[in-house]
Amino acid sequence: MNISQEQWWSQLQKDENAVILDVRTEDEYNRGMIPGAKNIDIYKGQGFIYEVEELDKTKNYYVYCQAGMRSAKACDVMGQLGFDTTYNLIGGMSEWDGPVELPE
């Protein structure tokens, strides 16, 4: 489901079953990420699918990329893999005005 930045962030704040998933490249991720995000690069192809398959399908996934296209694709793939709840951040990091931190 594609949702606006405001809706994505406010919903995330109230969701105790939430996981933030950053599907950008490692280089993009290292330039700044939404706090608490787990990075799995969708460009890894089958490697992406292997890593996503390891995730807990009962969680709610808040997915983002740089502009919203890769994360939309990731949400589609995750739906096909049996994930019930994924939310795509419209506009991605390019339009994000919430908190950002550098990964450790």
- What can be said about the biggest beta sheet? 5 strands, parallel
Class of secondary structure makeup: alpha/beta
Q: Helical segment tally?
A: 4
Distance between the termini: 30 Å
What share of the residues does DSSP label as strand, in percent? 15-25%
Strand order of the largest sheet: 1-5-4-2-3
Can you give the mean pLDDT? 97
Shape category = globular
Determine Rg (CA atoms, Å): 12 Å
Beta-strand segment tally: 5
The helix fraction, in percent, is: 25-40%
Order of helices and strands: EHEHEHEHE
Uncertain runs are none
How is this structure best described in words?
The protein has 104 residues and is α/β, with parallel strands linked by helices. It has 4 helices and 5 strands. It has helices spanning 5-14, 26-30, 46-53, 69-80, and strands at 2-3, 18-22, 38-39, 60-64, 85-89. Strands 1-5-4-2-3 form a 5-stranded parallel beta sheet. The radius of gyration is 12 Å and the shape is globular.
In short:
This protein has helices spanning 5-14, 26-30, 46-53, 69-80; strands spanning 2-3, 18-22, 38-39, 60-64, 85-89. With 104 residues, it is of the alpha/beta class. A five-stranded parallel β-sheet has the order 1-5-4-2-3.
